[in-house]
Design brief:
The complex is a heterodimer of chains A (about 120) and B (about 110). Chain A is built from no helices and eleven strands. By secondary structure, chain A is an all-beta fold. The relative contact order of chain A is 0.33. The mean pLDDT of chain B is about 90. Classes of the chains: A mainly beta (about 120), B mainly beta (about 110). Chains A and B meet through strand 4, strand 5, strand 9 and strand 10 of A and strand 4, strand 5, strand 9 and strand 10 of B.
Chain lengths: ~120, ~110
């Protein structure tokens, strides 16, 4: 039973335009969310996170939006660059867990392809 | 350079054999984790350790074992009881709390 869902296996966006990656979750115990980026044959690298007490967090070209009532979050990348081509994973942490030390629950990932 | 080192990058195992994947970190992180990734799937938690000499099962611990004798090291043994061990294995560490986990570059395990 997938508790974190990324329903788009892939997404193609033109360079310079906005990339929007979506993530839905079903467990209301999740209260902290992270986005990771992964290149082939490498480990994921942390991009940006958001706590459930916020609805937006921004870091440079990356912005994450959280809609708690819809149990939905999205990652916006503006402008998209060729180096952004990678697999993006949404991950979540449960409230009351050992502050993240219990491990993350990941979605299946979305492969973002930036077209020149 | 601080980071997480997983070795080897590729590993082959014969049926019925145990095999141990290495994970070492020099980030002085208390917490360490093992995840498994299958094609088209997200990462699934196998085991985690919040402190030396202590570890807990994750979502898919059956057929795996770990030890945490040193802060820097968290080896994962894939036992012969693991019926489908072919996968990409990722080790991670963090300072705990809500701090992001840092990942190694993974070990790809295949069955001969």
């Amino acid at each position: 039973d997938q508790q974190v869902k990324q329903n788009s296996p892939s997404l193609s966006v033109q360079e310079g335009r906005i990339s929007i990656l979506n993530c839905d979750y079903t467990n209301s115990m999740f209260d902290y969310f992270l986005w990771y980026k992964k290149y082939p044959a490498e480990g994921p690298t942390f991009l940006i996170s958001i706590s459930s007490i916020k609805d937006k967090n921004e870091d440079g070209r990356f912005t994450v939006f959280l809609n708690k009532s819809a149990k939905h979050l999205s990652l916006h990348i503006v402008p998209s660059q060729p180096g952004d081509s990678a697999v993006y994973f949404c991950a979540a942490i449960k409230r009351g867990s050992g502050g993240g030390a219990d491990g993350l629950t990941f979605g299946k990932g979305t492969h973002l392809i930036i077209q020149p | 350079d601080g980071g997480i080192t997983q070795s080897p990058k590729y590993l082959f195992r014969k049926e019925g054999q145990n095999v141990t994947l290495s994970c070492e970190q020099n980030l002085n992180h208390d917490a360490m984790y093992w995840y498994r990734q299958d094609p088209g799937q997200g990462l699934r938690l196998i085991y985690y350790s919040q402190i030396v000499n202590d570890f807990q099962k994750g979502d898919i611990a059956e057929g795996y074992s770990v030890s945490r004798e040193k802060k820097e090291s968290f080896p994962l043994t894939v036992t012969s009881a693991q019926k489908n061990p072919t996968a990409f294995y990722l080790c991670a560490s963090s300072t705990g709390g809500r701090q992001p986990q840092h990942f190694g570059d993974g070990t790809r395990l295949s069955i001969l």
